[in-house]
Amino acid sequence: MPDDSTPTRPRVLVERHLPTPPAVRGSASLYLTEATRQGITPERKMLFVGQEPASEHVAAALRVKPRDAVIARRKQFWADGVPVRIATSYFRVDVGENTRLDGEGFVLPTLQAAIEDLGHTFGGATETLTARPATPGEADLLDIPGEWVVQILRVSISTDDVPIHALETICAASRHVFPIGQPDGTDQF
């Protein structure tokens, strides 16, 4: 029998649409736009901006060697005061060093505008979902001991076939739903 004196953590379900609609992707903040449309009070905090060694999956996405330096921009997000996700934007050093992409704070007016200002044109993206146990650090930040996360890796490629941006979003699995849509005319009954 649960102890009635123990406060219950609220269950918050945040939608994360796949593929990400272009209007949301190009907004000032994907998460703030999504949460506001869902009637959720969003919060965000920048956790880290700087260079770090690329993990194997980020290195493969950005076409660099594992452990090569990449620029990381890591943020944490809350919905109605509950931690729901951690998102890290990764950029190749040759793409983002000494630009707004490696500057402190949030990139204004938008990350999309900063990338385009560097002369890159969007060519396409893939989004891959992986369900897995949370790492100890993720479990601590998201307050989900013993739970799973859904890792979404979105890799955006320029029209010049250069991987410009890898966005890794770690979602508390118990606090998200993932509506997945198909572009009109591309599917069958």
From TrEMBL:
It holds the Pfam family UTRA. Coiled coil: none annotated. It comes from the Bacteria. Residues 37-177 form the UbiC transcription regulator-associated domain. Gene3D superfamilies: Chorismate lyase-like (3.40.1410.10). This is GntR family transcriptional regulator. It comes from Nocardiopsis sediminis.
